[in-house]
Amino acid sequence: MERRIQPLSRDAMAYVLAGGRGSRLKELTDRRAKPAVYFGGKARIIDFALSNAINSGIRRIGVATQYKAHSLIRHLQRGWNFLRPERNESFDILPASQRVSETQWYEGTADAVYQNLDIIEPYGPEYMVILAGDHIYKMDYELMLQQHVDSGADVTIGCLEVPRAEATGFGVMAVDENDVITDFVEKPADPPGIPGNPENSLASMGIYVFHTKFLLDLLRRDAADPTSSRDFGKDIIPYIVKNGKAVAHRFASSCIRSHLEKAPYWRDVGTIDAYWQANIDLTDVVPELDIYDKSWPIWTYAEITPPAKFVHDDENRRGSAVSSVISGDCIISGSSLYRSLLFTGVRANSYSRLENAVVLPSVFVGRHARLRNVVIDHGVQIPEGLVVGEDPELDAKRFRRTESGICLITQNMIDRLER
Question: Which residues are involved in binding alpha-D-glucose 1-phosphate (predicted)?
Fold first, then answer.
């Protein structure tokens, strides 16, 4: 093992792939890419990958955007503009801009890196950390970089241990006893087990570490292959598994946990149900994800807001919240909340009741509304007396209702009610 003078992260660049739509989130991604979707009261999903990079010591970051990127780009400009080139730091937002050809947008995850090689190379990073921008987790990438260098791998892949029955939706790795990857299969019907732990499989987190020169040579080779789909999971990683050395890095060995977090936490909040559940989980007395851990902060756009306010103390008109997370600039005016999470700037008016509600910024809840098991999109105006969560058949006709009973409410859906 080589002696290190400084952390490897100082010589690394994090490259975040944030171009995906996230179509399973339905109307939540009609106006924004999945990485730009709100999470946890004040953050966006992409803030977790970016915060992990900053907290790990990485000071060069690139973000590749594509689908409906305005909301994401605006958030990055507002919240992530503190890196300074005079300190050898950089933060590049890299929209698909037909830089290689006038007809070519990003054709795949690998192509989203390849098309920006002329931006990456002048920085001269020794290592590239390729990240997905749409997962919720806390991880120290420095530990993954150290394993990559110590193992002599061509690529190191971040992995989750998941039950074999749940691994069919992932890219899954077969490994030997030293975690060297012997096969990589996308969404297999019969996922391979882990040596010594056959009931579980190793699923890809979409996190890859490369030596930069090796990656750039590989991307150029892939770009010259007319049969390639330009994708890390489908093309780049299988090629290395077959022709080089790919090593699995287990998330449990580098996940960040406070003393309150019992197990490694990673979530793909890619469906309405998963998104609702991950947000509602934050209202637990001791949530599985500790967003209050000051040793590993989740950086985001720190909007200047007044404090939350609760008013009125009359029978049936008492501003109150139980087992709930309430963000700044919220006014709970004679409304009762239970197990709900409110983002910035929500107004909940008299005699209304919210239960198991995830309410995005700037929502107005009218008087006497009763809302249960809902996700309410940004800026929605809930009319007086609206009832959701009590009549499944009626809910399904008016809103996006999942099989488990969660209703997504958007302004367009509300507007149709009033026609």
Answer: 106, 171, 186-187, 204
Structural domain includes residue 365 = yes
Q: Are 323 and 283 in contact (CB under 8 A)?
A: yes
Q: 59, 6 in Cβ contact below 8 A?
A: no
Q: Closest Cα to residue 67, out of 37, 99, 31?
A: 31
- 158 annotated as a binding-site residue: no
89: Cα within 13 Å, side-chain hemisphere: 13
Q: Is residue 56 part of an annotated ligand binding site?
A: no
Helix axes 70-79, 46-55, angle to 10 degrees: 30
Residue type, position 369, single letter: A
Q: What is the CATH number of the domain that holds 145?
A: 3.90.550.10
> What is the tally of helices (H) and strands (E) in the chain?
10, 29
- Strands 347-348 and 364-365, by their bridges, are parallel
Burial of 416 (0-12, 13-18, 19+ CB in 10 A): exposed
Q: Which CATH number fits the domain that encloses residue 329?
A: 2.160.10.10
The answer to whether 86 is annotated as binding is no
Give the tokens for residue 231: 């994708």
- Asked whether the beta carbons of 183 and 175 are under 8 A apart, the reply is no
Q: What's the token pair of residue 109? A: 């995850």
Name the pairing type of β-strands 38-39 and 43-44.
antiparallel
The CA distance from 281 to 136, in Å, is: 13
- The total domain count for the chain is 2
pTM for this predicted structure? 0.95
String of DSSP letters for 58-75: --EEEEEE-TT-HHHHHH
User: Which residue type, as a one-letter code, is found at position 195?
Assistant: P
Full domain range(s) for residue 232 = 8-283
Q: Can you give the pLDDT of all 419 residues of the chain as single tens digits? A: 455 678 999 999 999 999 877 899 999 999 999 999 999 999 999 999 999 999 999 999 999 998 889 999 999 999 999 999 999 999 999 998 655 555 567 888 999 999 999 999 999 999 999 999 999 999 999 999 999 999 999 999 999 999 999 999 899 999 999 999 999 988 899 999 999 999 999 999 999 999 999 999 999 999 999 999 999 999 999 999 999 999 999 999 999 999 999 999 999 999 999 999 999 999 999 999 999 999 999 999 989 999 999 999 999 899 999 999 999 999 999 999 999 999 999 999 999 999 999 999 999 999 999 999 999 999 999 999 999 999 999 999 999 999 999 999 999 999 999 76
